[in-house]
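Need residues for this backbone.
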């Protein structure tokens, strides 16, 4: 199932969904948190760090999945 056309389409769909969610969060949260003043600015920085961490985890998962599919790490880890 690795590197099939269905796998590639699902990977691209997940990438688009992740990018869309990150864009929506980065667009709407500053507006919503602007009413909080200084505390909202700090909260927005914390939320940005969390969003970046989630995206990096998704990228790490994708890289791991690619390595496992390529057979570099072997089937014993799956």
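Answer:
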């Amino acid at each position: 199932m690795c590197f099939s056309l269905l796998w590639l389409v699902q990977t691209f769909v997940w990438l688009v969904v992740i990018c869309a969610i990150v864009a929506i969060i980065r667009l709407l949260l500053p507006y919503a948190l602007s009413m909080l003043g200084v505390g909202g600015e700090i909260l927005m920085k914390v939320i940005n760090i969390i969003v970046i961490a989630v995206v990096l985890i998704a990228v790490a998962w994708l890289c791991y999945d690619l390595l496992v599919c390529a057979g570099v790490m072997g089937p014993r880890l799956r």
